[in-house]
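Closing statement on the magnesium ion sub-project.
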Amino acid sequence: KAKGSGRNGYALFDTSLRDRVRDRVRLEQALRGALDRGELAVYYQPIVDLESDELDGFEALMRWQSPELGFVSPMDFIPIAEETGLIVEVGAWLLRDAVRELVRWTERRPDGARRLHVSVNVSVRQLRGGALVRTVRDTLAETGLPPEALWLEITESGVMEDVDTALQTLNELRDLGVTLCVDDFGTGYSSLSYLHRLPVGIVKIDRSFVAGVGEDDSTNEPIVRAVLAMTHAMGQRVVAEGVETAVQRDWLRAQDCDLVQGWFYGKPEPPARLEDWLRRDTATAG
Ligand code: C2E
Ligand code: MG
Ligand code: MG
Ligand code: MG
């Protein structure tokens, strides 16, 4: 198969590059139309208040089960959806779906139960043009959800890509009353110089910094402490991502971290499997 140059290194590189291009094209073709074919779904992962140990809300995470390709990770298909612009349509669908789901849950809860939030990831591509602001405004009007119960997560690297556009859109969203979050905090660039300029209420510390906290040789602890001190000084609340152990949870609670999310509490699951969470929370909240 390799062209007769006899240089194996070339042939190998050539093949894997071609494979990657072919994979990418297949993925892109399959992704177009995935929404119409009903292959996309929304899973929800609990976010828990550390002080009360009660459910605070859920993060909505997109899932794609393709008949040809099988389960495709959002780490693989979201970047393609962003590059192709498909994210605008697909993201609007997810936002509506997640808000409607939250309203259904809330309606089923007895009086006096605390309000829950739903947190939706938004990519930088959606911050351009007015579509996102319109979708959010229409969805809130249509469902009657209190705006602060809708959280929108934006990665800091996404914001940094085009600060002026991002700031303008974020300010419009803030004016609608929704809660804005910086996602994967700590993994982007020049975070500190911009954080105070963003109308952000929640900072989500990336799970790479949460790994190992509470253990003897943790080098992440000073970083997490510094992020908590800084964000709390600015009046923001903090979600620690990727909490997998009781040791991490206990350490974070001792540092006055506000909220946690991770496998220790629950993995992302389809709505039908969240009944447990909703019941458990009602029991403790009552
Ligand atoms: P993210 O927003 O930072 O989401 C958190 C990711 O960490 C999720 O991966 C979640 O399943 C995973 N996770 C949660 N707890 C733990 C834990 O304790 N341990 C470990 N190892 N992982 C944990 P997922 O669902 O594969 O999503 C990956 C990324 O894809 C998300 O990162 C987000 O950036 C993107 N994404 C997912 N859904 C959407 C969407 O609807 N729109 C956009 N724009 N991006 C999305
Ligand atoms: Mg997120
Ligand atoms: Mg995150
Ligand atoms: Mg992350």
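The chain has twelve helices and nine strands. With this model delivered, the sub-project is considered complete and its resources will be redirected to Aim 3.
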